[in-house]
Amino acid sequence: MSADDTQEAREQLIDLAAQFYDQFELGEIPHMSVPTRTKNNIEYDEDKDVWVYGDRESTRSANSVRGARKLLKAVYTIEFLADQLEEDRSSTLRELYYLSESWDNKEAQFSDQDESNGLIEDLEIVSGVTREDFHMRPEESGATIMGPLHLREQTRRGEREIHCQKDVGEGGYQIPNNPDTIDFLDCDADFILAVETGGMRDRLVENGFDEEYNALIVHLKGQPARATRRITRRLHDELDLPVTVFTDGDPWSYRIYGSVAYGSIKSAHLSEYLATPEAQFIGIQPADIVEYDLPTDPLSDSDVNALESELEDPRFQTDYWEEQIELQLDLGKKSEQQALASHGLDFVTETYLPERLGEMGVL
Amino acid sequence: MSADDTQEAREQLIDLAAQFYDQFELGEIPHMSVPTRTKNNIEYDEDKDVWVYGDRESTRSANSVRGARKLLKAVYTIEFLADQLEEDRSSTLRELYYLSESWDNKEAQFSDQDESNGLIEDLEIVSGVTREDFHMRPEESGATIMGPLHLREQTRRGEREIHCQKDVGEGGYQIPNNPDTIDFLDCDADFILAVETGGMRDRLVENGFDEEYNALIVHLKGQPARATRRITRRLHDELDLPVTVFTDGDPWSYRIYGSVAYGSIKSAHLSEYLATPEAQFIGIQPADIVEYDLPTDPLSDSDVNALESELEDPRFQTDYWEEQIELQLDLGKKSEQQALASHGLDFVTETYLPERLGEMGVL
């Protein structure tokens, strides 16, 4: 992130606090409105092609002691963040929670971490600045990249130029917490292949899939961290790379795809920043279980419930997903991506992926 | 791993299969004995300073259909592993399980993954070769290193020389699944600081702790992967670096320390390879909760049970641990490592760690 962005984030925060002064001057009770963050209040933005919050708002107002305390905490947090940005430092959500114990006003201290996490989300939404730009680091680190990409990362210790095949070990390039510190210098990749499990990621690297097909292999490590989703979005936007997602064939993995493509309900305000609506699902599709005769496990009750809840989820209401989910409920079965090994260790790279990526128009 | 090691691992496996032929010739029923892997069958090896299996054994014998089937599966697996080593390929435990579906003899196929995992452990124990040397990759990847270490990693794509401060981004160097492919070229570090949480790892890197104190910061990511424990052991053995472990102050985190220092019951046969008995615990110690006046949470019932079970665990039967665990049960409280932020973001690097490492004789 550049010094300009830091300055801008700081100004946005100070503007928020200044609002309260304006409200005082106008004789209003200080207040702050934020969109309600529930499933009923997300809607599709046709222009931007992402899910965003609807019009429902809830208001934090100083007209009650409880509301006044919320605003007090917001102001203390804004001051902390503004100082942090001025000193070019950063901190985690958990550190913010503990740090509040050192604040001089006991009323401003957080009673639990849900409260401080929620406040940071509020501030993201009302300021339009992401928490990374507040220099709030996530706890979970991003995953890794392997493929023909040359990048420059701005670190606190100076710039680092790294080629994500030639300058890294077999583990790949570790995505930093804030990938907006990265500039893409040169890229020979034709598409991004985001992979759920470490075992499959290692299989693709061992089989040289990134070299043979000019793929950028991004390891999702299960539910992807914000940093992983952010860099995927940037690679798509800035380098015009198609994004494909390869997971296990069960409802939990479809949610992983959903989080890459549509974002999560809790962070719909960040969809434009984190989600890649053009991301395509490779599989394991329920149809693949039949077509490739894969080893399966029976669906558990919680699998069935999760599939049924996906049928109700606006993010999965497309013909494609309805067909696949209905098929899976009929089959009563699920398969893992590593089940492809039942046809040999090269089946995934020599047969399955080339066929699927061909069907999808990526290869 | 060198070509010689690969050849040796392959020969060990083939020797195992050859044993069955010898047993046939001697008119014996083919069988294989392995140590029992339970808490009652681990004991302290004074010479090697690690916990190892005792004398209790269980025998897989072809004198029953069930036993014969177990040996059949072992022989098929040995053949698969020997071929894999010959072709210089690798695979995951999960791939082995699925791959067995392609074997011509249905009786040799695994009925679930616990069975194939258990068999690989049996083969490790009886052959004295680790699964990494069979080229079986773990599912979970290792964590990251940041610090003054220059290394060379042998990858399938050639050698990579990487300095773990100068050639990496803020995320650090990603430890490969098999760290025995690494040679240490040059190291200016004075000690290893293994850290449980990502938030604290990032704090130490942001505050430049690795530079100021010549520390190798190894991120454990919760319960450490085999690769992380292995490289820690090698750094200790080959570079003579003291190992210190910094975790949250609760019974689950003491187990993380225990897994670095003593290994786990399930992998006592690997203690010599994975465990670093000289590793010292920094904290958060129960005594630190009092001394540094840290924010706490009350112990839950499961915390209390876990502490009481640690008092019974041979690996924690030292004066130090008994005192700390008794103190914690008296206090009824636990603290996270990030709770140090209640004294400011620099407290951990300017006060807590220098004081604790001084007491421990590391600084």
Summarize the structure in short.
The structure is a homodimer of 363-residue chains. Chain A has 363 residues and is of the alpha/beta class.
Description:
Two copies of one chain form a homodimer. The longest helix of chain A has 23 residues, at 3-25. In chain A, the strands form six sheets. Chain A has a six-stranded mixed sheet with strand order 10-7-13-12-14-15, with helices on both faces. Chain A is α/β, with parallel strands linked by helices and 363 residues long. The model of chain A has no long low-confidence stretch (mean pLDDT 91). Chain A is globular, with a radius of gyration of 23 Å. The first copy, chain A, has helices spanning 3-25, 65-86, 93-99, 113-127, 198-206, 209-212, 226-239, 251-261, 271-274, 286-291, 301-312, 319-331, 347-359, and strands spanning 31-35, 42-45, 50-53, 57-61, 91-92, 136-137, 144-146, 149-155, 158-163, 173-174, 182-187, 191-195, 215-219, 243-246, 280-283, 297-298, 333-334. At the A-B interface, strand 5, helix 3, strand 10 and helix 5 of A face strand 5, helix 3, strand 10 and helix 5 of B.
